[in-house]
């Protein structure tokens, strides 16, 4: 690290100084050397076998990188950009010794409340590596800046010297691009291959007998009618509809017609578009016709007798329709596609639900279609609403490689399963109104010496670091794995930059840039001190999904257990004077075995329990595409006791008093018959009522006189005027507001059949096929001592 | 009158005639067939070396961003439609299948020529080709490379290593066949 010129006044952003010398603190841990006095808390050894209460009472926060306070303030928010090791090892050998995965978890298009948008005529970038200017560059005198990723010295352009916010000249380091690590640029025409496309939405709906039975059409049409004006777009927005059963039906919505016209194409082996235009129409011009169609659609197919579903031909037609412009295709499917190209056979044997074969696609039709769509900037989103096996493993490919998203509603029925109908309604509301970016590409750059080798998420890798995303949405997360190609000896900071170039729904070309800065360390203890256990678990989950599909599920499970065993045994062997008979972990990794056990009991990886194949595949798709904060709730839900909410520790949010009950361990020993508990699983809340729950709680909060009268399928808390009801409702709505996807609520009584949904999440308990938490710790200890 | 009769003792070079004319003809045929096999193998190995070099260049192009994975995989995997359109199966345009078929043809040839050592040296490569084809990603046409996974660094590195190893093997076999051909021609 080169010190900057000392002869400049303090107004400059000097290249930051790091540790004030090497503080070799000798600690009682013997053999571990610490470089900075702030580390001991995360390195404090925790005896896992003795300490039974390792779960903190409030949710775990992301570790803060060990930088000086100026850099820490400027650094990227951990919700957008997070690394598994907040102290990067200097060499690949050191990383291998630590036995922890090195990677980044990204949520680049997250909904942000404050985002500086910069409309400058010149976007300052490094000449060789094309990095955008960011808060961590070094300004060498007034006119030149040094790139923090490739170390090249660049010139500061004349326009950059003027700061429009403070109207001052000569202080380039005060400009908003250099003061914020998350910025959005408005891009000029150099960044466009073609004029920005309008928002184009195509809905492909299954109308076979199965679909009409399930009754999803009413919900979809209703939701579309309500949200038609809120679809992101401008005056050029276009919309179209295709329905299919054993033939493909198109709808002519040309502006002058008195009612929508249905055009049926029955030659499904060679689908063609019946009219060249007016199948995708301008939303504002044909709004009345569209509303008529949406009102009429649910009733048009009530007497259908068609049981086949020609999904492949319908998708080929949709692709032909969308290829000139690009956009988004939303596919609603209710059964296995049984006709035409891309037809699938049932591969699941109901007697072998514990088997773990058939995790990969059966045909590459959907993958090829997704690649074609991705090339034409079209994303395909899948809504699977089926009650039987529909080979999600093959169907999911259409979304995975075209940057779409997958929604799955097992056993969907509009009247028999109100929880799923409500979930569909809420998901559709979010899906139709959330922000969207079209024809996007993303590039992740790192400091010289680091390189990225594997990408996870719904995307297509177009070249070694360029990711092609046909659509980008705020609920998509990505993960990447990195390796250290050259030793990072001449720098004490490394930076990572994600640049996402997209077309907004209003037709503007924008670039969202996030930059993260992390320190480099040379000792193994510091690597452990900076380990981010949640990020490591999410990255390992992604890697395990890949391993299960490419080799086998049991290999993936073994690899997960080995990850814990290797990292803990590497830690124990560096601390030489610790006893071998107990399992010691550093404070930063104390939750690692618990999270890995929870992951092994997750639907995606569990064995021995009967799991439907589609449920398993869906859980794997979620692992690959959800951002970290939702994925952690899926893996390790939060459990709270809500029948005794008190005012202690409450917080005030928007004039509301929100109680903050402590987090409980996910174990049945924490459940009592006299209590009521809320489990927050991310997209669904379960409220479990014990048999002898206090009648006052049932009366005040649920609105029923006693336990026996509570119905089996309660999905909402009534608004009662009691203190406990207010507290419970404000807590639940505070949890709901903290995430974009509104979760559904389900109240479960102790003897209801839905009880397994709740109890399967109690990961610390022993089941017939899996270890309890304590047994898992003993197993790890045994493996370490081998 | 005494006539000089040739004795079956130590014969002078001028009287050295082959003992069994039929056997000699057979031996001459076997000799030319083995040599013919080696000569053909020599020529075809030159083609295989060319394929190996093309393989290396294709993956290098992918790595250095010169081409995108979809186009590159379309070049490397044979497309069945193209093969069907051309009456004579013109598979020389595509990379993977021709290499495997040529190599299988070698093995059959050496089997017919009873060259067991050469056959034994080629057996591992034949087994490797069969394994590689059986464990390819799911796809509708014959082909080995999937555009969605080929950019993974470990798969890319594996394919590059495979290219270099094959080039080395084919070069060595080229010289081995050259030696074999000369040996068979000389040892008569």
UniProtKB/TrEMBL annotation, chain A:
Position of the signal peptide: none
Ranges for domain Gelsolin-like: 659-732
Record localization: Cytoplasm, Cytosol; Cytoplasmic vesicle, COPII-coated vesicle membrane; Endoplasmic reticulum membrane
Residue ranges annotated for the Sec23/Sec24 beta-sandwich domain, each copy included: 437-521
Chief location: cytoplasm
Domain Sec23/Sec24 trunk positions: 196-432
Gene3D superfamilies in alphabetical order: beta-sandwich domain of Sec23/24, Sec23/Sec24 helical domain, Severin, von Willebrand factor, type A domain, Zn-finger domain of Sec23/24
GO cellular component: COPII vesicle coat; cytosol; endoplasmic reticulum exit site; endoplasmic reticulum membrane
Domain Sec23/Sec24 helical: 532-632
GO terms classed as biological process: COPII-coated vesicle cargo loading; intracellular protein transport
Pfam families registered for this protein in UniProt: Gelsolin, Sec23_BS, Sec23_helical, Sec23_trunk, zf-Sec23_Sec24
UniProt-annotated stretches for the region Disordered: 1-20
Domain annotation Zinc finger Sec23/Sec24-type: ranges: 123-159
A molecular function (GO) term: zinc ion binding
Family label: Belongs to the SEC23/SEC24 family. SEC24 subfamily.
Name of the molecule in the record: SEC24 homolog B, COPII coat complex component
Organism, as annotated: Chelydra serpentina
Automatic annotation (TrEMBL), chain B:
UniProt main location, coarse: membrane
InterPro entries, alphabetized: Cornichon, Cornichon_conserved
Cellular component GO terms held in the UniProt record: membrane
A Gene Ontology BP annotation from the UniProt entry: vesicle-mediated transport
Keywords: Membrane, Receptor, Transmembrane, Transmembrane helix
PROSITE patterns listed in its UniProt record: CORNICHON (PS01340)
Transmembrane parts of this sequence: 24-57, 100-126, 167-186
Subcellular compartments: Membrane
Protein name as it appears in the record: Cornichon family AMPA receptor auxiliary protein 1
Organism: Chelydra serpentina (Snapping turtle)
């Amino acid at each position: 690290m080169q010190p900057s010129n000392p002869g400049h006044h303090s107004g400059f952003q000097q290249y930051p100084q790091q540790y004030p010398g090497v503080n070799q603190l000798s600690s009682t841990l013997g053999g571990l050397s610490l470089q900075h006095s702030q580390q001991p808390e995360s390195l404090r050894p925790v005896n896992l076998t003795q300490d039974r209460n390792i779960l903190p009472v409030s949710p775990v926060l992301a570790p803060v990188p060990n930088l000086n306070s100026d850099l820490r303030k400027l650094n990227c928010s951990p919700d957008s950009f997070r690394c598994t090791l907040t102290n990067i090892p200097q060499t690949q050998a050191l990383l291998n010794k630590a036995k922890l995965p090195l990677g980044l978890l990204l949520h680049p298009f997250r909904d942000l409340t404050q985002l500086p948008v910069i409309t400058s005529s010149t976007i300052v970038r490094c000449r060789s590596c094309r990095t955008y200017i960011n808060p961590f560059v070094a300004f060498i005198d007034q006119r030149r800046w040094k790139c923090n990723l490739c170390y090249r010295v660049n010139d500061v352009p004349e326009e950059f010297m003027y700061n429009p916010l403070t109207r001052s000249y000569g202080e380039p380091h005060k400009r908003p691009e250099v003061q914020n690590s998350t910025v959005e640029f408005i891009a000029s025409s150099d960044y466009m291959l073609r004029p920005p496309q309008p928002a184009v939405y195509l809905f492909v709906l299954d109308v076979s007998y199965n679909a009409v039975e399930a009754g999803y059409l009413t919900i979809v049409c209703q939701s579309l009618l309500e949200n038609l004006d809120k679809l992101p777009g401008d005056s050029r927005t276009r919309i179209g509809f295709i329905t299919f059963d054993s033939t493909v039906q198109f709808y002519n919505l040309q502006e002058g017609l008195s009612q929508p016209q249905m055009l049926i194409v029955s030659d499904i082996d060679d689908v063609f578009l019946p009219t060249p235009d007016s199948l995708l129409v301008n939303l504002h011009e044909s709004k009345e016709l569209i509303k008529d169609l949406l009102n009429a659609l649910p009733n048009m197919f009530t007497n259908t007798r068609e049981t086949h579903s020609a999904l492949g031909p319908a998708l080929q037609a949709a692709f032909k329709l969308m290829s000139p412009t690009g956009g988004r295709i939303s596919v609603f499917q209710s059964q296995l596609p049984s006709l035409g190209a891309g037809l699938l056979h049932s591969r699941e044997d109901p007697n072998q639900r514990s088997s773990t074969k058939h995790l990969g696609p059966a045909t590459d039709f959907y993958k090829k279609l997704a690649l074609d769509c991705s090339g034409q900037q079209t994303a395909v989103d899948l809504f699977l609403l089926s009650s039987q096996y529909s080979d999600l493993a093959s169907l999911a490919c259409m979304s995975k490689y075209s940057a779409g998203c997958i929604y799955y509603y097992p056993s969907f029925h509009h009247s028999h399963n109100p929880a799923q109908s409500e979930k569909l309604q809420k998901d559709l509301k979010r899906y139709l109104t959330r922000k969207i970016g079209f024809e996007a590409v993303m590039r992740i750059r790192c400091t010289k010496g680091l390189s990225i080798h594997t990408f996870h998420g719904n995307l297509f890798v177009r070249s070694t670091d360029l990711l092609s995303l046909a659509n980008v949405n705020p609920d998509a997360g990505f993960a990447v794995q990195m390796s250290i190609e050259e030793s990072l000896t001449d720098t004490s900071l490394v930076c990572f930059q994600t640049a996402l170039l997209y077309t907004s729904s209003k037709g503007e070309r924008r670039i969202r840039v996030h930059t993260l800065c992390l320190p480099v360390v040379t000792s193994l203890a510091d690597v452990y001190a900076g380990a981010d256990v949640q990020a490591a678990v999410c990255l390992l989950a992604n890697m395990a999904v890949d391993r299960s599909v490419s080799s086998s599920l049991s290999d993936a499970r073994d690899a997960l257990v080995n990850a814990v065993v290797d990292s803990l045994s590497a830690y124990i062997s560096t601390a030489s004077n610790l006893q071998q008979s107990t399992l010691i972990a550093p404070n930063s990794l104390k939750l690692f075995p618990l999270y890995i056990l929870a992951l092994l009991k997750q639907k995606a990886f569990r064995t021995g329990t009967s799991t439907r194949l589609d449920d398993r595949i869906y859980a794997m798709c979620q692992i690959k595409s959800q951002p970290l904060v939702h994925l952690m709730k899926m893996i390790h839900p939060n459990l709270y006791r809500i029948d005794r909410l008190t005012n202690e520790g409450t917080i005030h949010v928007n004039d509301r008093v929100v109680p903050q009950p402590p987090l409980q361990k996910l174990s049945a020993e924490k459940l009592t018959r006299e209590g009521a508990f809320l489990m927050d699983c991310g997209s669904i809340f379960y409220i479990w009522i014990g048999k002898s729950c206090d009648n006052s709680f049932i009366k005040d909060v649920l609105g029923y006189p006693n336990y026996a009268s509570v119905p089996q399928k309660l999905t909402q808390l009534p608004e009662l005027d009691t203190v406990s009801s207010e507290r419970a409702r404000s807590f639940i709505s505070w949890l709901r507001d903290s995430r974009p996807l509104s979760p559904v609520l389900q109240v479960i009584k102790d003897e209801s059949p839905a009880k397994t949904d709740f109890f399967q999440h109690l990961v610390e308990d022993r089941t017939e096929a899996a270890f309890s938490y304590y047994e898992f710790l003993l197993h790890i200890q045994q493996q370490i001592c081998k | 009158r005494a006539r000089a009769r040739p004795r079956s003792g130590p014969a002078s070079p001028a009287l050295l005639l082959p003992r069994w004319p039929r056997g000699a003809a057979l031996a001459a045929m076997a000799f030319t067939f083995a040599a013919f096999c080696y000569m053909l193998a020599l020529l075809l190995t030159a083609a295989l070396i060319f394929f190996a070099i093309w393989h290396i260049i294709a993956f290098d192009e992918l790595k250095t961003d010169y081409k995108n994975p979809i186009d590159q995989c379309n070049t490397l995997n044979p497309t069945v439609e193209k093969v069907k359109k051309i009456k004579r199966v013109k598979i020389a345009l595509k990379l993977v299948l021709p290499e495997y078929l040529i190599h299988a043809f070698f093995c059959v040839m050496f089997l017919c020529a009873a060259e067991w050592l050469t056959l034994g040296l080629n057996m591992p490569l034949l087994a490797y080709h069969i394994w590689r084809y059986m464990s390819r990603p799911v796809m509708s046409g014959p082909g080995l490379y999937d555009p969605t996974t080929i950019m993974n660094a470990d798969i890319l590195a594996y394919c590059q290593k495979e290219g270099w190893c094959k080039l080395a093997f084919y070069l060595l076999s080229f010289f081995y066949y050259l030696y074999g051909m000369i040996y068979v021609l000389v040892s008569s």
